[in-house]
Specification:
membrane; transmembrane helix; transmembrane; about 0% strand
Length: about 190
């Protein structure tokens, strides 16, 4: 944890955090507006595996991959997945540092709250493992193994749970920071 704290302290300048935040969200916006819709053109309205926070099973994967057809599976593999191999690194790094930045503002970076900074890293790692599973299933289709689907599904769920926990923690930290700023302004006005 000492190395993580040192890394965060070294990299939480406002400009660096803001730059990473903007880059992360540009890549995410690109996926949402370009690569995901391009892939979903082939899916007959079915959600892609990356976009299923509660998970999926073998029947769903079979149905989705059948619905995508050869061109859709190739688009998934060559358009969506490559961009989604950049995003988890940006997500984990950017949001780890963002939490660190706000924790530093609250003077909580040197406390157990530092563990919150690990949550986006867990989400990023789970996203990579999910992507590896999706690549494997796309390349092996129609020979889908239930264990591959089950394992990939676990990483999809871990990704979505850890992402949700991250956003809840971020909101709680921002509310705490807002209260701290308001209290400081109140006390400055009463003096």
């Amino acid at each position: 944890m000492k190395r993580l704290r040192k890394f965060i302290e070294k990299n939480i300048s406002g400009k660096k955090v803001l730059g990473l935040f903007i880059l992360t969200n540009l890549v995410y916006a690109f996926m949402l507006t370009v690569t995901i819709p391009k892939t979903m053109e082939f899916s007959n309205g079915m959600k892609l595996l990356d976009m299923m926070p509660t998970g999926y099973d073998l029947n769903y994967v079979n149905e989705l991959f059948t619905s995508l057809g050869e061109n859709g599976r190739l688009t998934y593999l060559t358009n969506q997945i490559p961009v989604d191999m950049i995003y988890p690194l940006l997500f984990g790094l950017s949001y780890c540092l963002l939490l660190g930045y706000f924790l530093k503002k609250l003077n909580k970076l040197n406390s157990n709250y530092i563990y919150l900074c690990v949550i986006p890293i867990i989400a990023g790692i789970a996203d990579y493992l999910e992507n590896i599973g999706i690549i494997t299933m796309l390349k092996n289709y129609p020979e889908l193994k239930e264990t591959a689907v089950y394992t990939t599904n676990i990483f999809s769920v871990i990704k979505s749970i850890s992402t949700s926990i991250f956003f809840i923690a971020l909101i709680a930290i921002l509310i705490t920071l807002g209260i701290k700023v308001l209290n400081r302004k109140k006390s400055d006005n009463t003096v």
